[in-house]
């Protein structure tokens, strides 16, 4: 498979690229900074320098042509202000989905976040509240599209080694999950029709990933 990943230098994306190299599949990582390209090549991924905050739709579609799966794993990241939550977590997600439609890529997986359905707590930081609104808007935009989409909402992300056992369902109790396990679940979902047009939540659990997928 050819898998195009927005946010190609992110932590989840780099786990995903490494796993794809191990399966003989082709990973293409979209990055903003050319200095990140060597890190992707070290993972046998193809880097493409493209700023999804300013790119034209045709540019995004060109990168996605011939892809089997599009994965949106980009985010403004810690330390960014409210404006970039809007332009990346919502705007870039929408642009990437537009590109998938133009390129004829039906399979689309978007990394979301548990909790976006709930309003921010009173007194919550405004930047975080903007982030939640942007992620929710990106989900709503994707649900309205004629794509074989899945929204995967992991819990609190950690850099611990993969456990290989998860709880994956429409709704789960809040918890943690290693980024490496998130990447493994993404691959398991690529060709799983039971996950099409569904929003799934993911935390560490007691079920091996393959079994968790079959229970969907």
Give the arrangement of secondary structure elements.
Elements: E1 2-6, H1 11-23, E2 26-31, H2 37-42, E3 46-49, H3 57-64, E4 69-72, H4 82-103, E5 107-111, H5 126-143, E6 148-154, E7 156-158, E8 165-169, E9 176-178, H6 179-189, E10 198-204, E11 207-208, H7 209-214
Parallel strand pairs: 1-2, 1-4, 2-3, 4-5, 5-6, 6-10, 7-9
Antiparallel strand pairs: 8-10, 8-11
Helix pairs in contact: 1-6, 3-4, 4-5
What does this structure look like?
Residues 7-193 form the NAD(P)-binding domain. InterPro entries: NAD(P)-bd_dom, NAD(P)-bd_dom_sf. This is SDR family oxidoreductase. The protein is of the alpha/beta class and 216 residues long. It is 39% helix and 24% strand. The protein has helices at residues 11-23, 37-42, 57-64, 82-103, 126-143, 179-189, 209-214; strands spanning 2-6, 26-31, 46-49, 69-72, 107-111, 148-154, 156-158, 165-169, 176-178, 198-204, 207-208. The chain has a 9-stranded mixed β-sheet with strand order 3-2-1-4-5-6-10-8-11, sandwiched between helices. Strands 7-9 form a two-stranded parallel sheet. α1 (11-23) links the parallel β1 and β2 (26-31). α1 (11-23) packs across α6 (179-189).
